[in-house]
Amino acid sequence: MSQNDYSRMEDHLDDMGLEKGPTVVTRWVSFTVADETYALNVLDVQEVLRAAEITPIPGAHPAIRGIINLRGNVVTILDARIFFSLPEKPFDDDSRIMVAELRSGEVAGIVVDSVAEVIALDEELVKEAKRSSSDEGSSHILGVVTQQSEKGNDKLIILVDLKGLSDLGEK
What we know:
By secondary structure, the protein is mainly β. It has one domain: CATH 2.40.50.180. Helices cover 10% and strands 41% of the residues. The longest helix has 13 residues, at 3-15. The chain is globular.
């Protein structure tokens, strides 16, 4: 086959809606906080807990709700609403604690309003998010993806990276 034949074949694949290069698809655990949809990379999430007795830590960062004992390990628990500068809400039947490993190797949990599902996202569809320098939570936003909801309208999914949360106590 000549180079011309390869070019025509690639053009034909494009016409069929097939991509030339490999598509990189990652899996994310989607969750809600204050009617917004967020997602954590599934490889970062160790488990999702229904409820746990959270012991407050006096003098801790405002976003830190406290600590829990998870099978003999002490796990710091953050409140996603406070972390993302949203109004507080008491823990209810839909609330969950998503346990994730941080960059430092520590394990932390984050309280969310609900956990929805595991979704597969094409990395090419991720748009860079605008960051606010004054909002601590915005530094943990990787990007935004638009996805069609069940109602037929577009919804935004905010992709979050919690690996740097171990720095929270130092700020």
